Amino acid sequence: MTELSFAEQAAVIAVCAAMTIATRALPFLLFGPGRPMPAYVRYLGRALPAAVFALLVVYCLRHVTLFSGAHGLPEFLAVAVTAAVHLAKRNMMLSMSAGTACYMALIQFVFAK
After folding, report:
1. Rounded to two decimals, what is the model's pTM?
2. DSSP letters of 23-67?
3. Is 70's pLDDT higher than 70?
């Protein structure tokens, strides 16, 4: 693979920055003040957080093998902690952080190989 020149690197960074700014500004341009929010956008705002969280759970548990090693116990304990913290506090960031910390502690100190 060839290395990019400084000009090429600068161009890539400029395009990435422009696209990031455009994607951040686009909702404000499309749905500015005084414009009604379309029903499908309101629906996506309600449905997507739960869908993304479910997708994250499936992604995190995709390699769990019930018949080898710890039989998925660290993963399922971390999921239980995540669910319990979320039900208690209703804070997605806190629940994901608690579940991640639980999982990391379990695989580093309890189920270390």
Report:
1. 0.61
2. HHHHHHHHT-TTSPPPHHHHHHHHHHHHHHHHHHHHHHTTT--TT
3. no
